[in-house]
Request: fold
Amino acid sequence: MGYHHGDLRVALIEASFASLAEYGLQRFSVAAVARRLGVSSAAPYRHFPDRDHLLSAVSAVAARELREEIVAAADAAGADEVDRLAAVAGAYVRFMTRTGAGFHVIFAAGLSALHDEERREQTRALMTTLIELAVAVEPSSYQEMLHLIQEIIAVAHGYTALLTDGFFQLSNGSAEHIATRAVRAAADLATARR
Amino acid sequence: MGYHHGDLRVALIEASFASLAEYGLQRFSVAAVARRLGVSSAAPYRHFPDRDHLLSAVSAVAARELREEIVAAADAAGADEVDRLAAVAGAYVRFMTRTGAGFHVIFAAGLSALHDEERREQTRALMTTLIELAVAVEPSSYQEMLHLIQEIIAVAHGYTALLTDGFFQLSNGSAEHIATRAVRAAADLATARR
DNA sequence: GTCTATACCGGGATAGAC
DNA sequence: GTCTATCCCGGTATAGAC
Reply:
């Protein structure tokens, strides 16, 4: 068994992303992440007390990176408010298929009991960004604006979930193709609200 | 350990639905289903050679029942083609939250290698029903019609996945509420295509 | 057709050596 | 801070008794 030199804590988080992308959250295991780094199965427990604390750290990084990519996608989409909001769906599909760490990881049920301050801060920032993009399209009602966000996340999450579950195996199932279709669907949903 | 009297094969399928609804596909196990019925963990293997064959039988029943509920929901929605197609999303959310056996179970990746004729027939019938409802809204292009179906399945599946993953925990997360919002989103998507 | 018992596997987590 | 070694648990699947 090799001896890890460097920041194993950071390496564990990075390897967790690779593991999530490859196997998904269902088969995520601390032991597999350790194997991927060539360290013993006990090593991760020096840095995280248990599996959920590792996943919580992954969640915090995922929320930060997803937020960054959403901001970049919105800016690349131009000035139209609907296009900017619809870009969220594309960024989500691309991030999720690349990293495996979507909202089901970021907001995983078991994690809310952990009181991880970093994670709390990053998820809050992510939601704030989504709200800023959505109020530009639906400023009349806070409730309706929240529903619009959830609609767009639902369609983006649904596309990626069906993609990873093999539902699109017979059609053109490339992630990029699905991303553009998610953007179109999101734009239709946003337009219907305006 | 109790001795099961009656049709254990059928009972195993029914108990699998209950287990899926309670724990989800991730934690589905043959042993847990056997426990639920009060039989030994070896008993299921007299009726299904392995775990995947049990899930394949569950998939066939799920496809048939989901199709029936979709037909009923469409008929209850009236004569408008958009309303009939949008009703699919509501039926899907209700079925999925009640049984846990959505498209990720019906079309689970590992099952396509099994050559279960009953399952093949039921999934085909389900897709045919969806196509009949979608051509009424988008008759111009087969490709676009398929995309419309996938859009609506995506939004319905996404809503249910986020609901079961606890994303809606702070808002009103009842299944019925989510079902009506999925119908509205589906109607918006269908209208945008017309 | 179902039981008990068991082999085997893999993941979570800990103890103690270095 | 990482290792080796180990315990415990639970799932899959099989063998053989009834």
Notes: The interface with chain A takes residues 25-26, 103-104, 107-109, 112, 146-147, 150-151, 153-159, 161-162, 165-169, 171, 181-182, 185, 188-189, 191-193 of chain B (CB under 8 Å). The helical segments of chain B are 8-23, 30-37, 51-77, 81-99, 103-106, 117-135, 142-164, 175-193. The radius of gyration of chain B is 18 Å.
